[in-house]
Every structure is written in structure tokens, then in C-alpha cells.
Amino acid sequence: MKGMDDESADRKEWTELARNTRYLKEKGLIIYVIPSYRFADKRIARFLATHFYNVGMMRFSDEDYEDFRQCIFIGNKKSGKHKEFNQKLFDFLVNMESDEFVFSKVTPIDKFVTAGKKWSVPPGIEELRTFYTKLAHKSDFSEGIRNSKGFQAFMNRSKPRQLEIGGDPILPLNVGQLALLLASGAVNGEIGEGENYHLVQGLELVKKIPSEEKKTHDNGSVTTITKIKTKREVSVKVICPTGRILKLV
């Protein structure tokens, strides 16, 4: 019983045994049903012989065992940190790899029930601890959240970015400088305020320009070499305060 998507090589019989025992109450009762030969796994056998007492082992009835080959382990979990190892139980479990041993030494479940064997299950917590709580109105927290540094930082990050330009450039911007502005996002969004408020959108236009070069050889043959150059242009659309739309290429 191993999951197809499991990253670990551990089989599910061992994984589930260790996991369920961790959450089982001390003196709690475990009913562990796996294929009979898996009880012979020394890791499983040693774990059961160390952590459980008042144990019982039974197999499916003669009618069902041939189809399923399952056995049932029942026992109470030991308490305390230091647990005595049950060597007799360990030796019994490691022999269950043999079907002959299982048929001769492990009692069928129907006969086990008629024997009247019983296990006790410890009671749970009878008294629940009392806890107190109260409902608070959201207005009690809204002012503190609004004035908190984290919320203010969030508000500042959420605002549209505005580019502040101090005066006109000394020289006209060339294509390379405009490309840097486009890459930094400076030629997008809101620019200026009041009468100088504009909405700007910048785009980079990439064109492929082919060119041919012919070379004549001494024997009279001609070789044509085709070269493709990449040309980048900048297109900027501007909406003025008057509503006029300008396109600069």
C-alpha cells in the first residue's frame, strides 16, 4: 500500500501506524488492519512490540482470508516515556511472513469474537475548559489601522506614479534617451499638474529593414548577401488639458 505520488519510499502501513500512534491517547485502543506478511516487517514489529500492551492478533475468517490475506492487531497504547520491549510479541510478528504460520498460530476473527476477549477504551475529557470572548465593533480598530505605518505604506504604493519634471531639457532628447525613459516607465501615466497636466503613453516601435549587397567574383559569378537591420523608433501619445491628442514619432 504505497501512494503513487508519494515522494518517500516508506509504505503506507508504516507511515499511518507511526502517524496515528502519535495522536492516540495513552491507554487508547488501536485497531490496525494490514496484510499479514507486513507484520513481519521488523520496523513495524518492533514498533508494535514497544508501544502497545494487552495485545491481540487475529486474521480474517477462513472464508475471507484467501481473498484479502489481512490480519488485525488490537492493543492499548503504553503510557510514559520509557516503554519495555516485548520480545515475545516481536518474535511472533516476524514469523507472520509465512502463510503456514498465520494459518496455524493466528486465530480467525469469528473464533476470536466467541472467546469473549474485551478491551477497555479510556474516557475522554469530561469537563471542557471555559473560555471567554467578546465581539468588538470594527470602528474600534479602523482608526488605528488608518494611522498605522503599514497601511500608509500600502496607500503610497497604490497611488498612481507621477513624474515630476523640473524645466525643459537643455538639448532635445534623442532616440536612445527616449528608449531609456520608456524602459523606466517614465513616459507613461500622469505628468505635470494644473495647466501643465498631461496624460502620456509611450511605445517602442521595432522595424526590420532588409538590405541587399551584391558581390562580383573574379570568375564572373555574383553573390547576393541579404542583411536585416533592426530599427527602433519611439511613438509618444499625449493628451493635453484641452483634450487635444498629439502623437509624436
Q: What is the general shape?
A: elongated
Strand content: 25-35%
Overall structural class, as computed from helix and strand content, comes to alpha+beta
Q: Which parts are unreliable, with pLDDT below 50 for 5 consecutive residues or more?
A: 1-9
Average predicted local confidence, pLDDT:
83
Terminal CA distance reads 69 Å
Order of helices and strands: HEHEHEHHEHHHEHEEEE
Number of strands: 9
Total of DSSP H or I helical runs spanning 4+ residues: 9
Number of domain modules? 2
The whole-angstrom Rg is 41 Å
How would you characterize the largest beta sheet?
A: 5 strands, mixed
Features:
alpha+beta; 31% helix; DUF6094 domain-containing protein; 2 domains; 9 helices; 249 residues; four-stranded mixed β-sheet
Explain the overall architecture.
This is DUF6094 domain-containing protein. InterPro entries: DUF6094. The chain has 249 residues and is an alpha+beta fold. 31% of the residues lie in helices and 29% in strands. The chain contains nine helices and nine strands. α2 runs antiparallel to α4.
Q: Helices, strands, pairings?
A:
Blueprint: H1 12-23, E1 29-35, H2 42-51, E2 52-59, H3 62-68, E3 70-77, H4 87-94, H5 99-105, E4 107-108, H6 109-114, H7 139-146, H8 149-158, E5 162-163, H9 175-184, E6 188-191, E7 198-216, E8 222-239, E9 245-248
Parallel strand pairs: 2-4, 5-6
Antiparallel strand pairs: 1-3, 2-3, 6-7, 7-8, 8-9
Protein name: DUF6094 domain-containing protein
Pfam families: DUF6094
InterPro entries: DUF6094 (IPR046076)
